[in-house]
Structure formats: structure tokens, C-alpha cells
Amino acid sequence: MSESRGMDAFSHLGSDVRAALSERGFSTPTEPQRRAIPALADGQNGLVVAPTGTGKTETAMLPVLNSIVEEGAPEGFAALYVTPLRALNRDMRERLDWWGETLGVDVDVRHGDTTDYQRQKQANDPPDVLVTTPETLQAMLSGEKLREGLEDVRHVVVDEVHELAGAKRGAQLSIGLERLVELAGNFQRIGLSATVGDPEEVGKFLTGDRGCEIVEVDVASKVEFSVRQPEVTRQDERVGNELMTSPEMASHVRAIREIVDDHDSVLIFVNTRQTAEALGSRFKELGANIGVHHGSLSKDARIEVEDQFKAGELDGLLCTSSMELGIDVGRIDHVVQYSSPREVARLLQRVGRAGHRRDEVSEGTVITGNPDDAFEALAIARRAKAGEVETTQIHHGSLDTVANQIVGLAMDFGDVSARRAYDIVTRAYPFADLDETAFREVAMELHGNRVVYVDEDADTISKSGGTWQYYYANLSMIPDEETYDVYDMAAGRQVGTLDERFVVNFVEPGATFVQRGEMWRITNIDEEEQEVNVSPIEDPAGEVPSWTGQEIPVPYDVAQEVGEMRDVASDQFADGGTREGVAREFTTRYPTDDYTAGEALEQVDRHVDAGAPVPSDDRIVVEQAAQTIVVNACLGHEANETLGRLLSALLGQRTGSSVGLDVGPYRIELEVPARVSANDVVDLLRETDPDHVEPLLELSLKQSETLKFTLAQVAAKFGALKRWKGRDGVGLSRLLGALEDTPVYDEAIREVFHTDLDVARASAVLEAIQSGDLEVEIVGERTAVGSGGRSSGQELLTPENADASVVQAVGDRIREDRVNLFCVHCRDWEHETKVRRVSDQPECPRCGSTRIAALSPWADDVVKAVRADDKDEEQEKQTERAFRNASIVQSHGKRAVVALSARGVGPQNAARVINRHREDEADFYRDILEREREYARTKAFW
Hints:
ATP-binding; Rossmann fold; about 15% strand; DNA-binding; Arc Repressor Mutant, subunit A; DNA binding; about 950 residues; globular
């Protein structure tokens, strides 16, 4: 596009729109507007890649609004604006409403919360422009009146298209747009995206590979980063003691506060909601004027802090990726990224939110806390400045999405030929390579589940009795997981939400946690209403909620650069370089200071000083200390996850024992039985056929909760389960057996491989090891680098029987748990103590009875129920359970106390464990562990 054509971009718009531009104060176009509007005004498909705050919405919508004004509004919808988050609608509404009112164009919003009255009004009298979500579009495509309105669609704008391209939501939308083509014919498609490494691929996703004009704004030249690790001061040590935290954490809090104090409006990005809450609680205790914003807070709580921040009432806002997307919170003059952002695109997107005045540079500071974190942040910052952005992983070929959309096509047409349905689905870019046989297998699976009717002779797919119910229950491809609302009982308001897994594994009356930067104590859980009632507390000790949400994976290329940095530094140290000198040299290549570089390099310095080979981009180092083997490999999360699962499964098969696995981007940590050595691990790396990685992993996955969990979710999308968590007695293991030779199983395997693993990379690594291109060395002790990081998410893989180390851990945990002993005979005596301090046969010091119940320390309601004279029905049940509990303790003494103190093991299960009469204590704890696992599985999935 020529520069002169771009400079008078607004001249491509009609007089009405140009007049509105002047009224709005748009004197000159922003860069994306200057470069994109001419092509979009000509009716071309377009993808605009630019940071938030650069006028992307107007870039897309001005040509669309101009077209409606110039050509006249149709009877139906002229344009759809599809946005992945409802939160965006609030910001869009304010801007689009102004343009609509000024230009005489009717703009409205439709999503899950839209009232029935408003929906009816939109069906009878469609607005010219409708702002909606991918899921609501799915519902609209099947509505009789709405379909008539959709026949007039001439433009579709997809906002944050990069977010959708890598997810099943986007795969579903891509077919949904092809279903819209069946109604409206071809329409103009405009995508708005943050910086991506492969805009051409995202363009193909958007248009079904119909071609589009790509306008990509150079972000890298307009951002500045600095990576720093704060120096710990005496004040930090003092504050750390006050906050009951480490001096390092106190130094991070101080550094962030200093940045906030030096600027007017600061966004502080963190990678997880847990971190947001942990930091938020510390800022709150220190009286800092900083709010907290993330997806598990209630809508009202989020809107409240957004408005406060925009109005200048807050100096800073702690947030997760909830703020990456274009929520309008006013002008931001600095961005803090707390710990490595993990990805180049994420750093550019987050720091890109600062600034945005003409030719103004966006500034950001990354605060790091350990060598891995610092090296990673430095590599990402350098790559960001160089424009080396990751590619988008388009979600290709998801069969449950195909199933979902086959049902959609049956809803659209009543009955449709299988050939036509296949052609519509495969016009969508993520399904262009879908095999016809696979498509027919999916259709037949739906037929078998009575979701649609397939007439093989006539080659048609038709609606059946279950079609309507299935379709409206599955408008979204987001997995159906329960959440519990958290209510502050005193204030009578919702605080936020917790996911079901957290409620199952942690929540019980009396437990404490952090949410919205405040400490809460759980008073009770209402299972039927799915509510957790809480009250605020001052106690700073608590556990941060563990929401569902995976750690952001570090890409292979970033991990490789970290390995390369280690390699360069180790060579310099080996040649006699000092840490100060090497650090100084690093600051010439990376945006950091001498202190931060020196702290990051300290680990490599010690490693080299000990004479150990340094793990790098072309060297894997395997080390062992006792039963812990660490494979130091700079391969990123997904390749290491794949190799870790492979090694864990193969070692488990060889030994018949469980192998603990903990994976990060630079290490695979294995907890192995005593007879396994580092040599065994290296032998597997050198001998395992790279072509066998996928089938070996599939075999091992059959025993994992990961596959069963995914299978249940996928089965729901195929209509194989009416509701995957329904209390219908369908055990997940039985489900696995029943679905193994179906497309449901194939999709569950594909989903796990797509989401968590990188089989191709892991296979290539094995090939490189076996060809000698990738060096592998063994060290007989833990090294400085090898001990430097530990990820979360330890998972015990196959086989199921726990080895000695796991059993010991269970025993140690239960012995340290607290128990409330209560005499049900005299009902007078109760005593709280640790399980390990309980005598072999507890008895009441007041009446001498041995009828002692072993209760949770928070079971006040049980004690009150036993003591009550006039009991209601619930108290009668509580009393009965307490007497059963005491009877077991009376018969079996301390062993019963131990069993009753396990998680989810009530009197009935405790009796079963004890009645197995295990002489070996390890076997006794194995039985308890099995009951705990059964409890977790039952509570989470049934």
C-alpha cells in the first residue's frame, strides 16, 4: 500500500463519517487506520495486527459503518461484531453507541445475559450492527426469525482473533461462519489481533483461506523493557517478618510500589490468579492503593476496580490475562510484569498497553526472582525487541467440534445431505484436511447417541428427538466445569468464584484462603446451591485459591535461548571470567543491570566451579541424588512434559512402582524407586525408538486421570453423556473401556496431545540424542543448575500402586494433621491435638470412657448436635455418625484415629480399611491412600 494512499485514509470514507470523525476529534488516522481503512473501505477481507489502544476498533468499524450509511441499512443485520469476552462489550458499547447515534446506525449487544424482551426485539427488528459472542452466534444460527435477519449480513468483524485461533471456541466459530455463508452468501471478514508470529495463518483461519489484506503494526520498535531483580535491603527483611513472608518477596513488593509511586497509572501483570491474590493481600496489608482484577472475581467486583482505576482512584491494578484484551481502563503510563511472561507475544501484548500517544514508546519492567526466571525474561525481552514472536497454534481437526457443528447443521436445515455437511465443515480452515471417513464416523457416533438421525442409504443427517436439547446444552466448546460462588455472609455480596477441584481438595469449614486481596475463613459449603460462604479475617496465614488453569508453557525457542545463555556464560567462567565481568558483558546484549545479571549468573558460576557440565541448548545433563533423578533439558514445557511422561511410564513398567514426575521448561524431575539409576534414564533416551513415542504415550495415558478427565468432557460434546458430572454411576474407568474404539476416544487423545504435549519435538530430541547431535552427560550428585527450579503440578503416573516414598508421605501428612477428640459418653470432654500425639487407646480423663470420636477440628456442628437435647433431623444424623465414629475408635484405638483423619474417609470407609487387618503399616497407608483417591475421583467427577 502506498504511503500517500495511507495518509488520506479517511478520504476513502463518505462525508457523513468524515463529519463524525471531525466531531469526535479524529484529525489524523492512527497507523492501523492509515494503512487498513483504504482496503477495508474497498470491501476486502482484512486482518489488522496491532496493540491495544491503537484505534483497532475504529479501524474495522469505520469502513463497516460507512458501508451501511452509503448503501443503506438492510431489513436484517448488516454487520456482526464478534468478541470472545462479554467484558469487552461494555467498552465497545460506549464507543460504538456514539458512532451509531451520530451516523443513524442502530447498534445493539446480544450475549448470555441479554433479557428475553431484548432478544425478542432483536429478532423482530434486527439492529444494523450486533455485538455478540461466538456462543451467542451459535444460538442465533438456529433461531427461525434470527436466521432471516442473518441473511442480510454483509460484514463480520472478529475481535481478538488470535485468542480464538488457538482454541476450540475458534474452531467452532470458523464452522459457524461457514454456516452463516449458507444464509448470507460471502461477506466481508475483518479480524483484529494482537501481535502474532504468523499473521498469514491467522488470516487463513479468519477467512477460510479466501485471502485477505494483512496490516501489521511494528510493535517492537515502540516498546522498551527493563528486566530487574530487586536487591534485598534491611527494610525488606523487617517488612518480610511483619508480612510473614521472605525478604525476597518483600523486596519485590517494595520494587513494585516504587514503580507505582513514580508513575500515574500502572498495570501490574502476573501469570496466575494465585499470584494476583498473594501479592494483592500483601499490598493491602501495607496500605498500598492497588486493586486486584482477574476472571474469578465477580463481575461487579471487576467493574468496580476497572472504573476506580480509570477514574484515577487507584494508583495501580494487579491483573492477569484478564487485562490483556481490550478492556478500557484509561491511559496507562507503565506496565510491570511480575516474573517472566513465558512468551514473547504475551510480553508485547502486556507492555503494549502502556503509552499510545503518537510516537510514544511503551515502557515495561519485568521483576524477576530467581536465575531461571531472569534468564527467561532476558531471552524473551531480547526476542520481543527483535520481533521474534511465537506462531499461533491453530486448533486443527478437533472431532468434538465437528460433532457439535454436525448437530448445528441439522438444526439449520432439518435434514442435510452428508456430502453438503462435509463440504461446509471443510470450508473452515481448521478442518480443511478433515478426512471424509472421520467425518462419517463422527456422524455415526452422534446417531448412536441419538443426537441426530443418519440415514446411510439416503446419505442424510436429520434432527432427532435429542437434537434440540443437545444443541442448546452445548452452545459453547468451553469445558463444562462447575464453579462455586463465594459469598461474604456479613456484607451479603458475592466475592468471586472457586472451581470445583479446589472446593473438593481444599475447602472445608474453617479453612482460610485469599481472594480479592483479602483473607477469608470458610463458614460452610452449600453443595446443592454450589455456594461457599465465607467471613473476612485478619489472619495473614492462609492458602491462595488453586483455580483451574494451566501454567503458561514456555516455548521451545525461548528455552533454547536460555540454554545458549548458560553455555556462553559457562565458557566465560571456565576461561577465568569473573561474575562481575560476565554480568557486564550480558548487559550489553540484554536489557538489564549489573546486579540482576550477576544474580542470574550466580547459579552457572557455582555449577562451573564444581566442575560439572552445564546443561545448555545442545547438552542434556542427567543427575541423581538418592531417589531423585533430574534430566536438565532446555526444551520448553511441552517437549519436557512429553519426555517426562514417556520416561515415567517406561520406568514404571520396568519396576512396577509409581514414578513421581515434576516438569518445567528446563528440567524433568523424577522420583524413582531405589533400584533405578541415572544410567537407566539415559539408556531409555538412547534406546527408545522415536517413532514409538506416540503409541507409548497413548498406552501410558490410559492410566492417567488427565485422559479420563478429558474423555468425560469430550464425551459430553458427542452426546455420549447427558452431563459428564451427572450422578449416574458412570465410572470414568468404565467410560474409558466403553469408548476406546470410537471417535470420542480419538479426540480425547488428540486433545491431550495438542494441549499438553509435543510428540514431534520429543521424537526429534530422541533422534538427536541417538545421532550424537545432542550430547547427554551424567553427574552423580545434584548440581547448582539442577537444583535451581521446581515446578508445580506433581503427578503420579502409572502404575496405580503407590511406592514407599508416596506411602511415607501420606503417613507423615496424616500424623501431622490435627484431630478433635470428643467423648460421646459424658459429652463433656473434647481435646484438639495432632494425630501423632494420640495414645494407642484414647480415653476420657473425666469419665474414663473409651467411646471417643475422632473429629475434624472444625466439626463444631457435630459436637453441638451430640450435646443438643432436642435434636432436629440433621442433628440426629450428625449424632449417629459421631457414635459410629466413636465405636470404631473404641474398637481399634489409634489406628482408627489415623484412618478417620484421612481426607474424605468417613466411619464406613475407615471401618473397611481397618477390617482388612493389614499387619504391614505401609499396606495400611496404601489402603488409606486408595480411599483418598477414590474420594477425590468421586467428588470431582460424579
